[in-house]
Model the fold of this input.
Amino acid sequence: MKSVTFYISIIVFILSFFILSPFSYSASDNQEIQELKKKIDEIQLESQRQIQELKQEIEKLESEITADANNSDEDADQSEETPWYTKFKAAYDDGLRFQTEDGNYRLRFRILGQFQLSVDNTDDELTSTNFDVRRLRLIWDGNAFRPWFLYTIVIDASVDDILTDMFFTAAYTNKIAPRVGQFKVPFYREFLTSAAGLQLVDRSIVNREFSLDRDIGASVLGGLTSGYHISYLAGVFNGDGRNGSSVDSNLLYVARIQLGLGGEGGRFNANSQFPAAADYTISPNFASSPTFVAGAAFAALPGLNCDRKSPGGGACARIAELGFPQSDFTTFTADVNFKTYWFSVEGEYAGRWLAPDFGPSDTAYDQGFNIQSGVFLLPNTVEFAGRYSFIDFDTSAGVIPVGAAVRDTIWAITPGLNYYVFHDNRLKIQVDYSYLRNTYTNQSPHIDENIFRMQLSAFF
Done:
């Protein structure tokens, strides 16, 4: 009985195993499927998140690219409207030039440098041998705001009082143009000649005595006729020389007029020290065709008191020599110049009245003249030049103090030789020799001077 029961139990167990096993496996598979689906969902969510982030990054990059493209287009448009490199020009043409395309702003920069060796042997003095930087000038000129508003600025680094020129000229029309500032007083022709264009190493004794140097003031200038054959400049100045000031109301009045014939006239330069057409500029030599220029000037300074102010030239030294406490100062000059491509000659006369306001002395009249000439031994390259200068001081009995030993006459003769490296005044070597004789009143002994000079001049 027990065995039958045992076998029946085994059979029931086996049947149960086979019947229940499929249900067991089905539950396990369902759970695994659910877990896999859950993982798929998680992967899909992560993928969507990453895709969204990538889309945002792409949109950001596209925005930046678009902005850069827009900025580039704007810059290109602005460059097309105002390109600086098309409105600004730089070049070298008789100086270093900078200029805007519209012509309203123009600057020319130049340098004048002169190095000189001199040997001076004067009676009763030590013979001196001297190396000297004669001039070192920095020059700016051009126009500002409009083509007709002109300016010039010159400083000289070789002297303590470095400001040489500073003036503005409103040349809206060449016939009448106002000018203000400090510039050469328009009087003696030799002084109005540029230092770079001198035919001999230095200016004459007549220039030293009668020129009026530079001064501060206001003037009007212009050129007349269609070819500017006539030019003029008239003005009023402080009367105290370079960088001076006026402490009274006694001012210096000056006027100069000039006539030019021959040549071709050419462009009128209202920005030069004395305005003139190109062929009639104040220069002793270099002409392409026969050219004749004549000029005259007049100046007056009433009530000159040299304790208060001192105009350029030798007027105050002469007043001190004569013992005049205060004088009416009047002077005039006349000059002529003729030049061709191989030959030049010029002459100039100056006279001066010094009339004391009170005292027993008579009016003193001093005078002087220059004659200067040059001939090219090689066209525009080697030139032989020479000058004779003479000054006659008034020594009449009513002028000089009784028994005084004062200057009577001075005369000088100066031959010279020039070598123009580039056939003009830009780079040249000059050599000259001057013999001067100074004579005095009251049988005082004369004094002789022997001066040798050699100079290298560069203007660029």
The CA atoms of residues 415 and 425 lie 19 Å apart. The helical segments are 2-81, 189-192, 205-210, 315-322.
